[in-house]
Amino acid sequence: MPPQERFEQIVALVEERGFVSVKELGEILQVSEVTIRRDLQHLHDQQRLRRTFGGAFSVRLPAEAHAGAQAPAIEGEAEGRPGTQPAGAAKSATETESSPVDRVDVLIATSVDLSFDRALLDRATKRNVPVIAESVRIAGSRTLVSVDNYQAGMALGRWAGHYARQHFGGLARVLDLTYRLSNTQARSQGFVTGLREVLPAAEVLLSINAQSAAEAAYQLTGDVLDVHPDINIIFAINDATALGALRACQSRGANPNSLIVLPFGLEGDTLRNALVGDGHCKAGLAMFPEIVGPVCVEAAIDAYNDRPLPRHVLTPYAVLTAESLPQFYLCQSGAWQLNWENAAARLAIPLDTASRIAGADRASRRASGSLPRRIGIVVPFSEHEWYRNLTLNMQAHATGLGIGLEIIDAAQNMKADVALREREIAKIAADQVQPGDVILIDGGPVTLYLAEELAAREQITVITNSMPVFETLRDCPGITLIITGGVLSPLSDTLSGPTAELSFRELRADKLFLPATGITLGFGLSHTNLAEVATKQAMIRAAREVIVLADHTKFGQESVVQVAPLSVVTRLITDNALPANTRLDLTKMGIEVSVART
What we know:
By secondary structure, this protein is α/β, with parallel strands linked by helices. The protein has 3 domains: about 60-145 and about 290-315 and about 350-410, no CATH class; about 150-285, 3-Layer(aba) Sandwich (Rossmann fold); about 430-595, Translation initiation factor eif-2b, domain 2 (Rossmann fold, 3-Layer(aba) Sandwich). The strands form 7 sheets. The chain has a 7-stranded parallel sheet with strand order 20-19-18-23-26-28-29, sandwiched between helices. The two termini are about 40 Å apart.
């Protein structure tokens, strides 16, 4: 595909979705993430989109229905200086490997992964960056901005009970499409409680983790309907899950009058359109991202100024139907816009946000010097309409105040954070190698970084089954390089199988540098690919010392098959996000633990 055609497709996708991650664009356009990052920087420089860490979002926001709204400015134009970047503006991901936390004054984040939370908060604490939790509480955050998930779930459950009484003869047989996070669990529990307040005999036939993904919800719902055709209510903890359920209902030709899907969210136009479409979606719990976005910004401003905040900033919700939807939303040119006047009159909007939007003197707030220059928002599910609309509305409110917004794709950021930590681990590993050493290097990202660190060394012998390691070291004059035979795995780019195992029987090494995909005290070292395990075990037998290279995300994970117990490990090199109690447990087992500082 010619670059110009690719540019146009990228811009169209970003404008359609609001935010698109690098990974999504690479998969859609079938090019590498390196190419996508280069394209995004080119389009950012042309001011056709806004480049962010992990993706890009549109410079065109939906028209605002409330008074005083301003269109978003291109970075550098907030203070009338076209073509320049304000102080504190983010560099592109190709220009720096620093954490996004280093580039913001306040961080808004959702808890998705405990190890990621620890690393994020550790960095935020060191940088004195206050954290606002969104949707799910994070330890150490200044406040949580979210609905009362349990009470909101109860409200939708009560509606479902009354509907079942009127339309299903009082019978309610429920499929609960839930998720593992505390907020989504509260939604499911509240829904069932509210339903049983109205219909005590209501049955929850199945409660299943649908992975917060439309495709998983589609597959699970279809399977459940095949086994339990008498289900008549499907509760979905967000719009993505609801969309999968709706597709499954439609693909099986289910009657909308005998099977309903009730989403917790109504996050964007897709489910609002479904609500008025006379299909399976008869009602939904609206969380109003148009309100939550500005509230998050106002909470961030208060935290930046060290003003007191409640432990929980409660945002409004409402159960909406096709009849009540127009009380809150106006459909203009095919898009639903929040009617701020009606919303402010009917809903309790926290932090005086509605009045600040409608009548605050933005110029005086900017001039006061009490505003952060840049706010970061960590997006855990960039494909969800909730986060697309939340970030667009945050951007509109922040830009009106002259505040920059950096959108951080959690998945991409976790990869980048792990890469930073693995590079530091590799540097410590390289210090273990002395002239005259014979070393074994297994395949993996961290060992590739190790190979790069060793490239300038003299008088060492490297034995490897990794093609990337081999290619990195093949032209290094100071290194004697030996590559094993074996069958090449296209996924890991390593050689394994009987030929590789035979090579290690005839070789001996001073040190083995071994990555692992899973480490627990009980199960030991484990790996995802069964075919490669025997080769790793042969490498362990061929080495006098086994040095495991593993960042904190590998701990607590048990992969498909055990490679070896931890008793074979001489030294572990990890990062400082691994909890101290885990490091102490490993030390008690006789393993020397080295910690990379990041």
